[in-house]
Amino acid sequence: NPWVGLAYLVAGVLFILALRGLSHPTTSRAGNRYGMAGMLIAVVTTLVTHDLASLPEILVAIGIGGVIGFVIARRIKMTDMPQLVAAFHSLVGLAAVLVGWAAYLNPEAFSILLPSGAINPVSRLELGLGIAIGAITFSGSVIAFLKLAGKMSGAPILLPARHLINLGTLAAILGLTGWFMTDQAIWIIATITVLAFVIGFLLIIPIGGADMPVVVSMLNSYSGWAAAAMGFTLGNTAMIVTGALVGSSGAILSYIMCRAMNRSFISVIAGGFGAEASAAGG
Amino acid sequence: MDFIAILSIFVLACFVGYYVVWSVTPALHTPLMSVTNAISSVIIVGALVASAEAGSATAKWLGLAAVVMASVNIFGGFAVTERMLAMYKKKEKK
Known about the structure:
The complex is a heterodimer. Chain A is an all-alpha fold. Chain A is built from 11 helices and no strands. In chain A, helix 1 packs antiparallel against helix 2, helix 4 packs antiparallel against helix 5 and helix 4 runs parallel beside helix 8. Helix content of chain B is 80%, strand content 0%. Chain B is built from 4 helices and no strands. The interface between A and B is large, with 103 and 81 residues. Chain B: This is proton-translocating NAD(P)(+) transhydrogenase.
């Protein structure tokens, strides 16, 4: 159905206009409206083009989430904004993990099942990466939220040999994702999920203080990449375009923020390199 | 859809994202972040597909949970951006 593709294209264009609009004070409110319109088109298109076995449940789910989101948005104090954004990111990350698992458990619904009864290996790669990025976004954002909300010490927590641990965990995640392409056993995807939750935690605990806004922006970028990975799995252009937009713009915004603070982008992202350097320098 | 076509769309969208935010005003960093956060809830499309299809009850409930989370983000994200932008507008008038 060509109309579906066209509708998702319109949604993608509206999201580009939203980001563009938010770059200037005069166009910012229009930008936010473009974003809402794009989201409405994406959701309605998906709802009308799928066999809905459970429409009432879906509408209730949207209603519950909508009311919670709206009430939080109205009541939150402006000074609590950074931790709110971090909390919102964690939801996108966890949603990506759940969608990835749902695709693994019901591959037919996502059209990623081969005639042989196995999941398409390329889709398994996308699922593995999507779940991993989503899980990193989730646990990283939870830590960022706890630190910004003052529920956890904002000071960097520096584990000994943390770079070695981080690199080892990342390598294990990538290795398991490669393995998952040849063997779709559930324990592999479960281990990827758990390791990714752990690395999200490890990546954020050594970062603290003034670097936190950059971290929130970087986690924003991760949530975009997770959405894009799921978009590849679904072959859904709206998700791919949006995920790529959020992913790259989030990375650039983090870079701009680092530059404004005169901090090295790499050291903030790698977590704690900067802390070491400033300790050595001071 | 063929993988290379999808990959092309992805790479081009990365470049659009790259160029679109370069000129952002520093005062708009937080609203921009909250609007991109709201937009990344497009993951709801995947959640809707998961919860709409029959076949696996577990997948359906995972999908519905993801729909709730993404909806919190969509409504909360856009509403909070609107509030922040309204505040900037008041400041300008003064």
